[in-house]
Amino acid sequence: MRWARHFNTPAKPLGKDGRKISGCVEHIELSKNTAAEGIVLLKNENNLLPLKSKKIVLLGKASEEYVKGGGGSGDVYCKYCTSLYDAFKADGGVEIYEGLHVFYQENLKDQRKKHRDPGMTVEPELSDAQLKAASEFSDTAILSINRYSGEGWDRACNIPGKELHMENIEVDVWGGEDGFRAMSKEVFPKGDFYLTAQEEALVAAAEKNFKNVIVLLNVGGIVDTSWFAENKNISSVLFLGQGGMEGAVAAVEILLGKKNPSGKLTDTFARRLEDYPSTDTFHDFAGGVEYQDDIFVGYRYFETIPGKKNCVVYPFGYGLSYTDFDISLAGQNDGGDKIAFTVKVTNTGKVAGKEVVQLYYSAPDGKLTKPNMILGGFRKTPELKPGESCFVVVDIVKNEMASYDDEGAVKKSAWVLEKGDYKFFYGNSVRNVKETGTPFSVPETKVVLQLTEQLKPRKLTKRLLADGTYKTLETSEYEKIERPEIFKKAEVLEGVIPSVRGLPHKSMVQRLHNPTKHLEDVYDGKVTLDEFMAQLSTEDMVWLLGGQPNTGTANTFGIGNNFDYDIPNIMTADGPAGIRIMPWFEQYTTAWPCATTLACTWNEEVVEKIGQAVAKEVKENNCGIYLAPGMNIHRSPLCGRNFEYYSEDPLIAGHMASAAVKGIQSQGIAATPKHFAFNNKETNRKQSDSIVSERAAREIYLKSFEYMVKNSEPWAIMSSYNIVNGQHTSECKDLLTNILRGEWGYKGIVMTDWWTRAEQWREVKAGNDVKMACGYPEQLLEALNDGRLSIDEVKTSVRRVLEMILKIE
């Protein structure tokens, strides 16, 4: 029977020989290997790594509490999470000083009584006696630092005048975010970008007592790296990211040289939090944030704005290896609509390893301000043995180098290639590149694609230019929308469970002989979808546009659900680091590396494999819609949900998300890329206005989604909580209909994030098909009756919902 899992929720294992595949050995191994490939070697003076010493000391409570990922919907309940200490002990390759193990365990046990999560604990102080005994055991110390952030709250910013003030900020009544903010302020009085006083004391003690100091950063986002970058007392540093349940095992394999680090940064690591232009306005006012940095996000800012290069500690794309590579240009071919670059990579070192070829371009100066460098393509090599070479091909589509003109400097509302030379650079980071020598010359400025104005930013006061100055903009008022009184009552709107629609008495004989056409008949080709939909009453249809009750192990509700017509109730499942099932089911799943760590692999193939694997776990647990991948831009280090997202760069974010979607949907499970769009701040997230220029929207924040939609065709997309330029994204026709469907050709459904503050009838009109986690059919019927909503608009959304369900296995 089609959709048997979704009607009857049989827990049939999908593994070999009747074994469960959720949390299976094979998936955990894939998770570990991927975590290893995403680890970035930031520093390795005197080739201290891989470890030569057979005795080591583990410093820092983080050696006992590995942070596998972030909190909220991105968390995963897995059977275990290996600590660094346990990983070393299981490996047995080195001897560990045991004197600190019990101390850290007991200290963390006490802190757990204060309900502090891993990464939100205070670094305990070590006595002189403890340090003396440890240093007598070994002259080599591995010092671990960890961090934790989560959904619904941002990382603390304690720069004078830039702090978060809670006045007029609404906290989700059921999420507990206020508690996390308070805890973060207590544990990290300087903000968690910087070391705490206790961590600084530990670093000083390590430098004083140990000849060799190795630092591990178990963090999901950008942190201060200036304290070790030029510090001769700290020899080696690994950026571990947050690598899932066996991320610590992956770290040990890198430390011992069993694997060679091949990760590269997908964010720019600057000296100070103040160096990021987004910091200046991040907490300016509770109602939102102005994107005054415009298109100059991440390396586009630091590599372009005068004087900002010196702010960078580790540039975008950076990452060392235990071996050396020679990268040379073997060919450049103009193939009409694209240019293909053939690059030869040779392992000139002594151990096997992988390298990432990165291709950048620089657009000519013209009427439109432009960044100095933009990532145009990348490719990761296979593992190369010493002396071995390979050739990789990286393409750049010519029209993809166009800039968007939102002011009419060249041609308003158009993508344009301005005349001049477009120069190309290849290498292994934005800083370590060589020019190809053969530019792409555009003799006359040309319009690549003419569009119409969308997402007009009425409240944006200024925008950054390439010379570091700001252009002042005219502002105007938003259209005033009167909301029903219910929208002023948070407790009424938050966490509402979907209604259960009643069914009248009907005998089995009646049901069996009823001439009703069932959805399975459409799948089998017996009837058309139009014929099937013709049976549905208006009430039937509006019920299909809202979330449905949970079944089985699901906890994020379903879509569909009409027994009379055999429309299954397809359960959704949280992601994106693995399917999240509540612990009381005792059904553990695989905790995968967080999105930032996946991006640091620069390996689309492995991300696609993870998509396939997690989709099988989704299916095994009788869900059909996976709420992943997360793919918003890392605009600011302060965003508490950055661990769920890939990068500051839209190209790598788009490629990684596209690979994930292909992997997920290859198993008959709907992927749900999120959060569409401009979800770059968690504080007051349901009322926060992202005030952004149309050019920045199209070139930075929508670009990753555009690539993903056109290359992987997701069956569902989740609109975001926030407002964009005065409109809730789920009510924004410019975004959901004109751009997403009209310009990009998207065919799937759009669902809201859970319990938005927008009105469902406005959402349907804008092109948002399903309201999650529950809909309000009575409100839709009322809007239909008084003419605010048309039956054709409802039918359009219903059709998209049914088309999606027909694809799910």
Textual characterization of the structure:
- This protein has 809 residues and is of the alpha/beta class.
- Among the domains are: 40-152 and 194-262, Glycoside hydrolase family 3 C-terminal domain (Rossmann fold, 3-Layer(aba) Sandwich), CATH 3.40.50; 317-457, Immunoglobulin-like, CATH 2.60.40.
- The protein has a 6-stranded mixed beta sheet with strand order 1-6-5-4-2-3, sandwiched between helices. Strands 12, 13, 17, 18 and 19 form a 5-stranded antiparallel beta sheet that branches. A 4-stranded mixed beta sheet has the order 8-27-29-30, with no helix packed on it.
- The N and C termini lie close together (11 Å).
What's this model, at a glance?
The chain is an alpha/beta fold and 809 residues long. Strands 1-6-5-4-2-3 form a 6-stranded mixed β-sheet, with helices on both faces. Strands 12, 13, 17, 18 and 19 form a 5-stranded antiparallel β-sheet that branches.
- Percent of residues in helices comes to 25-40%
- Distance separating the two termini: 11 Å
**Average of the residue pLDDT scores:** 95
Largest sheet: 6 strands, mixed
Give the helix/strand class. Answer: alpha/beta
The helix count comes to 24
Uncertain stretches of 5 or more adjacent residues: none
Write down the overall geometry: globular
Could you please say which CATH topology of the domain at 40-152 and 194-262 applies here?
A: Rossmann fold
Structural key phrases:
single chain, 809 residues, alpha/beta, Rossmann fold, Immunoglobulin-like, 6-stranded mixed sheet, globular
